[in-house]
Structure formats: C-alpha cells, structure tokens
Amino acid sequence: MDYSVKLDNFEGPLDLLLFLVRKNEVDIQDIPILVITNQYMEYIDIMKSMNLDIAGEFLVMAATLMHIKSRSLLPKSDDDEEDEAMQSLDELKKQLLEYQQYREAAQTLKEQNILEKDVFTRTTFVEPENKEEGKMLGEAGLFDLLSALKNVIARAADKGSVMEVSVEKLSVKDMMNDILQKIEGKTDGILFENLFSEGSTKLEIITTFLALLELMKHQALKIFQNDNFSSIYVYPVENESIDISQIDEQQI
Predict the structure, then answer these.
(1) Cα–Cα distance between 103 and 172 in angstroms, integer?
(2) How far apart are the two ends of the chain, measured CA to CA in Å?
(3) Residue 20 banded pLDDT, cuts 50, 70, 90
(4) Whole-structure pTM value
(5) Residue 119: inside a domain
(6) What is the pLDDT of residue 131?
(7) What is the pLDDT of residues 126-147, one digit of tens each?
(8) Position 2 in a domain
(9) How far is CA 53 from the centre of its chain?
(10) 8 Å CB contact between 147 and 229
(11) Whether residue 38 sits in one domain with residue 133
(12) DSSP labels for the chain?
C-alpha cells in the first residue's frame, strides 16, 4: 500500500536536486551529472522501497537526468541528440538557479516578523535553540530524513541485522505509540537514530520511519538539525495530542 507524504516542507524534484547539490558542495553551474544522477536515483529507490507515493514529476526528472547522463558517457559528436542533451542540462541548471532564488526569497519572507500585525498563530511549539551557537535550529526536511534513514539501514546491515522482510506483522500505529513514549518529556529532543532499536530489521526500520512521518503529518512532533546535513533531533510538540486509536491503519 502506498504511503502518501503530505508534509509542509516536502516539495518536488527540484528540491531534491538542490539538496544533493548542497550536500555535495558543488556549484549549480558545475553539476557533476553522473554523481548527482546516481544519488538522485538512490533516493527514488529508497522511496519506492518504502512504497512512498512518488509524484510523477520525480520520475520525469529521473528520466531527464538518465538521458543527460547516458549522452555524457558517449563519445562526443556533433549530432542533434547530443545538442539536445546539453540543452536539457543547461535548461536544468537555469531552473535550479531560478528555483534557488525563489526558495531564498521565500525563506527571507518567512523570517520577517509579521505576527504582530493582524496575524495570529497558536503557541503550541517553541522552536528549540542551538545551545552551542545561540541560534534557532533549522527545521529538517524529508530529504534530510531519507538521508539519515539510509545511514540507519547501512549501520543495521553492518551489524548483521536481518534485512529481509519477514512475515512478521508490524503496526505503524504501535510504532507511533512507541515513538511518542520515547520523546515524551524530552524537551531537548532525541537523536533520530535513537528512535530505532538495536538490531532492528529493515521492516522494523521502515515501519518506524513511516510512523515518524505520520506523527509529523499530525503535528505531534517536529524535527530539527544544527546545520545542513548534520544530526537530526526529534522534538515533541507540547499541548498537541493525537488519538492514535482513531487512525485508520489502512490509510497509512
């Protein structure tokens, strides 16, 4: 059954590409197309492995990247197909630059203090402060979570955990309760990695991850990190309750 991701900070394929560009610390004008394409496909594969409902534009972008990659591996020629591939790459760079400017402008507007002028909001959650640097932590996104999840799965494989999906029945609702118990009262948050039990199987890891996404969707918790690509911390949202018993697991 597909799990549909509906998070405020979850966007589309351009967000994933920007995430990878920043993670690799490269300039948009000098994108290493082979590396970025391979990493992009890794994220698509991990979303598929969890039956996440992948929007069609992700697959269109994957096809575009694969086409550009395939042309870049062939001997250089002057044919029209190569020109078309290079034009596609140039257009992609242009889209990324424009989208990056859009995201930066949106972030600037978000950071402006507009709450004191005809705008009101609930105060159920106070964003945590980075004690080391004396500034607010940055809210992590889905791709940050997927990156951290890859590391958890890799460590489980290194420790010899059973990675094959078994006939064991795991409940996302039970995992949601388990996560809420782990973060209850933890005003300083807990590490993302600590949500997963020692020796977890791949099925247990994925079920826990889906439970985390469901709790985020219900605004029962939030995730933050000190800096881009750093450790992720999970925080409870005070005064925010969720009746897990009323959730239809068939819709998860």
Answers:
(1) 33
(2) 8
(3) very high
(4) 0.70
(5) no
(6) 47
(7) 556 554 554 556 778 888 888 8
(8) no
(9) 14
(10) yes
(11) no
(12) --B----TT---HHHHHHHHHHHTT--GGG--HHHHHHHHHHHHHHHHHTTB---HHHHHHHHHHHHHHHHHHSPP---HHHHHHHHHHHHHHHHHHHHHHHHHHHHHHHHS--TTSS-----S-PPPEETTTTEEPEEP-HHHHHHHHHHHHHHHHHTT---S--S----HHHHHHHHHHHHTT-TT-EEGGGGS-TT--HHHHHHHHHHHHHHHHTTSEEEEESSTTS-EEEEE-TT----GGGS-GGG-
Kindly state whether residues 137 and 84 are assigned to the same domain.
Answer: no
Two tokens at 183?
A: 């973060």
Q: Work out how many domains the chain is built from and give that number.
A: 2
Alpha-carbon distances of 18 from 146, 193, 247, rounded to whole Å? 15, 24, 34
Give residue 201's domain range: 129-251
Question: Residue 56's CB: how many other CB atoms inside 10 A?
Answer: 8
Which residue type is seen at 248?
D
Q: Phi, psi (5° rounding) for residue 225?
A: -145, 155
Return the residue matching tokens 């995992």.
Answer: 175
